[in-house]
From TrEMBL:
It holds the Pfam family CT_A_B. It comes from Nitrincola tapanii. Residues 28-316 form the Carboxyltransferase domain. This is Biotin-dependent carboxyltransferase. InterPro entries: CT_A_B, Cyclophilin-like_dom_sf, PxpC. SMART domains: AHS2. One of its GO terms (molecular function) is hydrolase activity. The keyword Hydrolase applies.
Length: 320
């Protein structure tokens, strides 16, 4: 009796990859943690399917993915707002639905947000690599089908466990779904404790300036550009030299170009650019969904409140 099915990709989409909770404990090896960029949408994907924390999903930028299921399973799509069709019949997002043998799933293109997550009951069954993770990292050629870290492409097949149990219809109420139509997104920010006089001045400028997401942003970093060209500080006083140091997710660095960057899931593990503080974890999930041109503002965060929010997030999504 077959125990697994295959999802044959007919179209890989704009940029699609396999992502889970990311690699833990590998920074000392110089390896990126990777993992789902929008942890909130990814975690809800697994919860709606009653999968345990950490199961792999397909992370799909903008959309355009299409494939055929060889065997029955339960599916849910969360994250960016995009049209979903199963055999040309519209399907609801954030809602579990059934796919049977021969069914064709097709995703349109996002009109709000930019990352969608496609999950199946039991998760996608790829080998776990370094750090016990299935996550793909293009730069390091690690994870994904064939452990090459490449974007998903037409012709590839992804294994999943067959799920023929009665459909457990679960949906996330609209009022609990994130709203990706935001004129200005506030980012909770914690300044570094030890800053030079030069860094303090740069920090004041960061808080006083309107920012937007640059088109050069990627899974490594979200680059910021001033909302008004006249506020560009590329010719400002050069930064003092400093030794390289370990970097954490959400670190806000200021390179010589004067263009701030917020380190995302595939960031380098050490760096010597001035580091002014950190964008808090829950804000990073929302930042991951921002398209180029999205207006941003840094907001001073309360450390205790941010810690409490993260503990509550972990407790809710990790419970059995």
């Amino acid at each position: 009796m077959l125990e697994s099915g295959q999802f044959l990709l007919l179209k890989g989409g704009i940029l699609s990859s396999v992502q889970d909770a990311g690699r833990q404990g590998t920074s000392h090896l110089g390896l990126a943690r990777s993992g789902a960029m929008d942890r909130h949408a990814w975690a809800w994907n697994n919860r709606l399917l009653n999968n345990p924390w950490g199961e792999a999903t397909l992370e799909i930028y903008i959309g355009g993915l299409e494939g055929v299921f060889s065997q029955e399973t339960s599916v849910v799509i969360t994250g960016a707002e995009l049209p979903i069709w199963l055999n040309d019949q519209p399907q609801a997002p954030w809602t579990v639905f059934r796919c049977r043998a021969g069914d064709r799933l097709r995703l349109g293109y996002a009109h709000a947000g930019q990352i969608a997550y496609l999950g199946v009951k039991g998760g996608w069954q790829l080998p776990r690599e370094i750090g016990e993770s299935r996550s793909s990292v293009l730069r390091e050629g690690l994870g994904g089908p064939g452990n090459q870290g490449q974007p998903l492409a037409a012709g590839e097949q992804l294994s999943y466990r067959i799920d023929a149990s009665p459909l457990w219809h679960r949906t996330l109420a609209t009022k609990f779904r994130p709203q990706y139509h935001t004129p200005v997104l506030d980012l909770a920010f914690l300044p570094a404790q030890y800053l030079s006089d030069w860094e303090v001045q740069q920090l004041k400028h960061l808080f006083a300036t309107g920012w937007r997401v640059s088109s050069a942003s990627n899974r490594m970093a979200c680059l910021l550009e001033p909302a008004s060209p006249e506020t560009n500080r590329s010719n400002a006083e050069p930064a003092p030299t400093r030794l390289s140091e370990g970097l954490a997710l959400g670190s806000l660095q200021l390179p010589p170009s004067g263009q701030p960057m917020i380190l995302m899931n595939e960031h380098q593990t050490i760096g010597g650019y001035p580091m002014l503080g950190w964008v808090c974890r829950r804000s990073l999930d929302r930042l991951a969904q921002c398209r180029p041109g999205q207006a941003l503002a840094l907001v001073l965060a309360d450390r205790a409140e941010q810690l409490k929010a993260e503990i509550e997030f972990q407790a809710f999504f990790r419970q059995g």
